[in-house]
Amino acid sequence: MPELSKAKFKVFKEDGSFDEITVQFNPSSLSFDKPNHTADITIPGLDSPLKQFVRGGTETASVELFFDTTESGTGPGATSVTTLTDAFYGLVKIDPKTHAAPICSFIWGEKFPGDRLPERYGNQRRTEFSCVVTDVKQDYKLFSPDGTPLRAVLTLKLDEYVPLHRQIAQLNLQSADHTRSHLLAHGETLALVSWQYLHNTRDWRHIATANGIDDPRRLQPGTALTIPPLT
What we know:
Membrane-bound Lytic Murein Transglycosylase D, Chain A, seven-stranded antiparallel beta sheet, two-stranded antiparallel sheet, alpha+beta, Elongation Factor Tu (Ef-tu), domain 3
């Protein structure tokens, strides 16, 4: 039988070292949400606007954790479940040294969601979720006669944390500073071609100048256009 892999948080300190907080029971629920932000590019004569990528949005995660200390008894002198939960509650508290909540990594097993991304995404694969904890909901379910909490469900919300240098290394964006060519199709405009290659409709004049086009309204299908890089 394979060894049970417990989920845990690495909690990084100011000096680069870290503490580890391990869950009592593995999560009963784990979800991720990764949005992208786009803008509508309106071009006269088209049936609908074009979509232009603006930027990626913050990926968020939500994890639900269960804690129970009834094994040590439920009567007077019972062990409070907060002896386990307070370490996780602390992830959303401000560190007096850094004046911010700590940077963490959520880790669970070897086959973490995102570790099998296709090769075209470069080194954006991950084996853990680097994050800051933005919300901790504590739901206490059972108490001893003297009011000691014995059972709890915690829901933690995590916001992805990726510093600039790591984003640049992960994306490995390919340079667009090379000249390309385009065969003009029927109905295409320079604004449309500009959006396709230069990601901005306003740079159509750059293409017109490079190709000696004086009247962009009189384009011939089949014309070979040169798309030089923006300087």
